[in-house]
Amino acid sequence: MKGIEKKVSIKFYGSLQDFFKNKSSSKIEHKFLDSRSIKDLIESYNVPHTEVDVILVNNKSVDFSYLIKDGDSIKVYPPGYLSERTDVKRLYKQVRGEPKFICDVHLGTLARNLRKFGLDVRYDNSFSDETIAEISVKEKRIILTRDIGLLKRKEVRYGYFVRSEITDDQAKEILENFKLVKYIKPFTRCLDCGNKIKRISRKIVKTKLPDHTFEEGMIFFYCSNCDKIYWEGSHVLRMWEGLKFLLKSLS
Q1: Considering Cα of 110, then 115, then 120, then 122, what sign does the dihedral take?
Q2: I want to staple 54 with a disulfide (CB 3.0 to 4.6 A). Which of 2, 75, 77, 238 is the partner?
Q3: Distance between CA atoms of 205 and 188, rounded to whole angstroms?
């Protein structure tokens, strides 16, 4: 026997409208038969719970476990909204201190670019979604991905959907969104594994590098995790110019 059809209205605000092709579509009349959690309702529109901060139902704050009812008026907000209200439940999980990240298997270039800034980013192209979620929970790392399904996993607390599909724009997006400028320490991490690199003497590396790298005053750095040596060649100067240009665009 078919149940009685019910309906709710739901509106998404701010950056949550990015998940809709047409922002006018972010105001919806949703029809349903059986009650469901508001988390399931929100994510049925491909808005991951990791980017939701406040949910108001009939102007009252609720959490993700709330079961929707016929006639509910629902408003969904990202972080940064309703700062004047002290009576709302904040659902967005914010990492304290310097953020740490983990990129999914499709964002290897982003991981490498963020490491250039000295940011702590894990990446391995063999990681499954399950592994990424487990590491995120265990190490309190923010998942960076363009896979909404990964962010919908119930165990995931920290996650961000990377909006840009353009590789060169993604690092800027992350730096801006998470306000990371104060944490930038360029060229302090290995670009391949993310481990911190340390300065080492010329004598140690002399047998491992070609003679033309040993110019006067050259400084060398070493990654003990993957046995890689870095030095200040022309490639570093080019990267510096790129980083300075990006930082200037953020100021």
Answers
A1: positive
A2: 77
A3: 18
Output the six-digit token pair for 194: 């993310």
Closest CA to 250 of 182, 172, 178: 172
The per-residue pLDDT for range 154-208, each reduced to its tens digit, is 999 999 999 999 988 999 999 999 999 899 988 889 999 999 998 887 767 666 6
pTM of the model: 0.88
Burial 145-163 (b: 16+ CB within 10 A, else e): bbbbebbbbeebbbbbbbe
Closest by Cα among 3, 38, 20 to 161: 20
Burial label for 42, CB within 10 Å (0-12, 13-18, 19+), is: buried
DSSP percent split of the chain into helix, strand, coil, nearest 5: 35, 20, 45
- Rounded CA-CA distance 196/146 in Å is 27
What architecture (CATH level 2) is domain 6-77? Roll (3.10)
pLDDT digit string, tens, across residues 30-49: 999 888 999 999 999 999 99
Q: 51 near 15, Cβ under 8 Å?
A: yes
